[in-house]
Write a structure and sequence with these properties.
The protein has 318 residues and is of the alpha/beta class. The protein has helices at residues 9-18, 22-34, 37-46, 66-79, 134-143, 181-187, 206-219, 221-224, 240-254, 259-285, 288-300, 305-317; strands spanning 54-59, 84-90, 116-122, 148-152, 169-174, 195-198, 229-231.
Length: 318
């Protein structure tokens, strides 16, 4: 009688994930978020099965109502029979390193829906509003067969331009009455937007915020040609259908991109971010006297800032 080879836990996890088992996906995401050799091996096994999911990112300054608008967008997708996964990056606790908000508190109307998968991810202090583990976690959700993945960064404003490396459609949000948030969009997020949204359009000054964004687009015709400005209100349930149509239009354009090109773009972003994180870690490990010594040489004129910068880089990577 032929003996059947027993699958290793890792093989069982991968096979379950590829079969669409939600429990296997959840365990895989935990492994990937923890990082280390196990995460790298798992990511390598999943990578050949990626590149099919369409990724939509909602970003913008804190307070614009990203989670609420995403919840309304998901409701529309589910009404059309679409399955949707959400990867929401939360600020990390300075004490535990974990996410301050959990997936159970996000978009609560969809938590019990089998056609919606929601996972919160701790940012762990990474810049750009994302988590270093997010690209591999995005690949896992992709490999598990979820056709649409929504990314929600922390909400740090113009620093969140890194989502351009991972998203097929970038929805950049503003809201009236939040001080200089529209001004903040000018310096970074405006240039990566496929769709601009003025959320909470039931509030005063919403029309003014929309006009400001349209004026900015006119000043950047070359970079922002064809970018729509859409006013939405989750409270009054307005503008959601138009946003849905705009996202579908952008996704139709993205369908011409081959899966391997999409994977290559994500990998490029992942490698760059990991190298930057490794360099920051090496800088943090340098003794204070090394920095003090370079600073003293700059103060006395023995070194220029450029020379000191070069020396610092050599110390970090040497």
């Amino acid at each position: 009688m032929t003996e059947v080879a027993e699958l290793s836990p890792a093989q069982t996890l991968v096979e379950g994930l590829l079969a669409g088992e939600v429990a296997a996906l959840a365990r895989a995401l935990s492994v990937l978020e923890a990082g280390g050799d196990d995460a790298d091996r798992l990511a390598a096994r999943l990578r050949p099965h990626t590149g099919k999911a369409r990724v939509v990112a909602f970003t913008g300054p804190p307070g614009v109502g990203k989670s609420s608008l995403i919840g309304a967008f998901i409701a529309g997708m589910r009404a059309q029979g679409e399955r949707v996964a959400v990867l929401a990056v939360d600020p990390s606790s300075p004490f535990t390193g974990g996410a301050l908000l959990g997936d159970r508190t996000r978009m609560s109307a969809h938590v019990s829906d089998d056609g919606v998968f929601i996972r919160s991810i701790a940012s762990r202090g990474q810049p750009g509003g994302l988590s270093l583990a997010l690209p591999a976690m995005l690949d896992a959700v992709d490999a598990a067969g979820w056709p649409m993945v929504i990314l929600e960064p922390v909400g740090a404003g113009q620093s969140e331009t890194e989502i351009a490396e991972f998203a097929d459609v970038k929805v950049v949000m503003a809201a009236p009455g939040l001080g200089d948030d529209v001004q903040a969009l000018k310096a970074g997020l405006l240039e990566i937007a496929d769709i601009l949204v003025v959320n909470k359009s039931d509030l005063p000054l919403a029309d003014r915020a929309a006009q400001q964004l349209k004026s900015m687009l006119r000043l950047r015709k070359k970079e922002c040609s064809g970018v729509p400005v859409i006013s939405t209100s989750v409270k009054e349930e307005t503008g959601i259908d138009r946003l849905d149509q705009a996202i579908k239009f952008c996704l139709d354009r993205a369908r011409n991109e081959a899966p391997e090109i999409r994977v290559a773009r994500r990998l490029g972003g992942l490698l760059r971010r990991r190298a930057e994180a490794a360099f920051r870690a090496r800088l943090a490990e340098l003794p204070d006297d090394a920095l003090d010594g370079l600073g003293a040489e700059v103060r006395t004129g023995a070194l220029s800032l450029i020379e000191a910068e070069r020396r610092l880089m050599e110390l970090a990577v040497g």
